[in-house]
Amino acid sequence: MLRHSAYFTALIETKIFRRTFTFYSFHVPKSVNFALRLIYSLLHFARLMKYETVIGLEVHVQLNTKSKAFCGDAAAYGAAPNTHISAISMAHPGTLPRVNERAIEYAVRLGLALGCDITRDTRFDRKNYFYADSPKGFQTTQDSHPICVGGKLDIEVGGEQKTIRLHHIHLEEDAGKSIHDINPKHSLIDLNRAGVPLLEIVTEPDLRSGEEAYVFITELRKLVRYLDISDGNMQEGSIRCDCNISIRPKGETKLGTRCEIKNVNSMRNAKRAIEYEAKRQIKVIEKGGTIDQETRSFDAQVGHTNNVLRSKENAHDYRYFPEPDLSPVLLTDEYIDTVQKNMPKLPNEIKQELQLVYGLSDYDANVLLEDKDMVFFYKEITQHTKNYKAAANWLTNVIKSYLNENNLSIDQFALSPKTIANLIGMVDDNKLSNAAASQKVFPELVKQPDTSPLELAGQLNLLQDSDAGSIEALVDRIIAKFPDKVKAYRNGKKGLLGMFMGEVMKASGGKVNPKVANQLLREKLDNKT
Ligand code: ADP
Ligand code: MG
Question: What is the pTM of this model?
């Protein structure tokens, strides 16, 4: 019966409605066509609303250690192909791995920050599969004794706080890279990345939308940057993500069959892939079909997911077994305490500091916290000025827009925190108006970063006169020039103040301090004697 009704709905929508649109759209008034489309969209929406999307993520974070996970080869990104390789990276017979101590420390750092249990005897396993750019024929990873277990990450979506539980975090090595687009006849292989340490963070299936996945990855990326364990650079592949997606009718507690989308390389693509995949699965189910558990890939050009393997090949058999060449790593309480003591400050702690010590709003604090280097820059400005609010305004408005427009990061910014503090000081001392500082001096200053702001403001003829004596003389002149207007003002036409201000500014060439001029004008005009 259920199958029948599903089929019926599908029939109406795919056959009758589509034909209605294409066939009648030329004959019926636009409004009718519009109404039909609206009904179709509503039906479609209602159909989507019956289901809940369930998502679990496996996020791979590349660690920024100097050397690889199990040998001393450099782990740095961007070198000429096959220059960071030794006999171990190339998996020559007889070579032996050694665990990179720093990679263990970074894993513990992340585990502590996420509230995981740290495994005291963590072990390595072999995951066997053939892959052209993985010369060993297996990946050294962790299966039975991952380094961190449990834990959680809190995210905020649509103003609501949500906790995403973690299943575990394990340490493993990356594979090399196959390059297919340089030589038309051959695939080329670069083994620089083979053996670079990765942490894989595996969540419980607690996420419910593409948006939540987007926020989760964003928060995780922020965290690993604050912890200084990864550069979090998604363009360079430092964070990659497998998205497991299933759907189920709302209210159902059993999980549906999932599909796994491999190797998604940005937050935005994770969101797009999840939203597409959920709709695809709903379509299949609504048509009375079933979901096969399969591995899919996301085509970012068209925004679709595609099955990459035949279904038989989707059943993995990795034949995991304990890595015989590495002994278990035993972590003592003292060791874990030391890692805890040396932890860099976490975003939440810094947020509190920004609000309590520097008096910033929730909004300003959040904008600064998006980028760890922004926070450092902010704190350096405040070494040179006590106007904390202005420092935040400069960073979150003027500097941030400039950086965005020019596609720069704050560490590529030409001006020093001291120069920004200097500008703030000039505004505070009424030497320069805020508008002149941000709209005239700043754009010139970034072009000539070695010039002093004061000198530049002088050259641009923007320095304000704040000397009350000389402004008073000017104000007196203007008042004497318009005796009728003065009378009118004193008879109640207070709006004329604007006209007087305009005259004073004009006569001074825009260089008197408006606050001082305004105050003097009021005093003189209101004083009827
Ligand atoms: P595997 O070992 O095959 O990768 P796991 O059971 O370890 O599978 O799960 C991997 C990821 O898939 C986890 O993030 C988990 O939360 C998620 N997951 C598992 N089952 C489902 C499901 N039915 N729907 C959505 N996500 C799922
Ligand atoms: Mg998996």
Answer: 0.78
